[in-house]
Amino acid sequence: MKLYGYWRSTTSYRVRIALNLKGLDYDQTSVDLVAGEQQDADYATLNPGQGVPTLVLDDGTVLTQSLAIIDYLDATYPDPAFLPTDAVARAKVLAAAHTIAMDIHPVNNLKVVGRLKSEHGASTDDSINWMHHWMTDGFHAYQGLLPEGPIFSFSDTPTLADICLVAQLYNAHRWGVDMTPFQRLLQIEEAAMKLPAFEAARPENQPDAT
């Protein structure tokens, strides 16, 4: 398998964690989002959404969108499972994962922040304040969904929710979000980083990290 991604992309980070947790071998090809390589014609043909990640399977099948890729991995390589089998428990894990992947991430990604600057005159400080608002808002929602007791968000092993959370926390630290109200989330992150699969997926540990 070949993963097209970018070291600082939180969506690429999610897929790296998932691949590592499943114990799968994969090659990485960097797509520099800041340099605009996602818009190159060859890559845009591979991924019409002009984003990352893209996972190319050994038979040449191309998969895009991080949650779809992780769903494929979980269906194809079921151990360890990223979602509970119980329908209610599964829905709760998905709700938390979606809080990160659908509420926080889309309004904070590079395309949106770039548009705020280019079309609406947002300054760098304005953009950072924008990201802080949505991350803080989303983290409050996420933390409010969590039960007491488990090491990770919903169990003593990582789920899809934890994969999404840890990747988003990287962005929160990067942009200086005040994490004082989110001690439970930091405890989950600390537990995750003790696992080799999460540690190896860290942005700083990628071959294209600068």
UniProtKB/TrEMBL annotation:
A GO CC term attached to the entry: cytoplasm
UniProt keyword Endoplasmic reticulum present: no
Isomerase is among the record's keywords: yes
Record-annotated GST N-terminal domain positions: 1-81
UniProtKB keywords: Isomerase
Domain GST C-terminal per the UniProt entry, residue ranges: 86-210
Recorded superkingdom: Bacteria
Molecular-function GO term, any one: maleylacetoacetate isomerase activity
UniProt-listed GO biological process terms: glutathione metabolic process; L-phenylalanine catabolic process
Pfam families membership: GST_N_2 (PF13409)
Signal peptide as annotated in the record: none
NCBIfam families: maiA
Family statement drawn from the similarity comment of this UniProt entry: Belongs to the GST superfamily. Zeta family.
Descriptive protein name: Maleylacetoacetate isomerase
Organism expressing this protein natively: Actibacterium pelagium
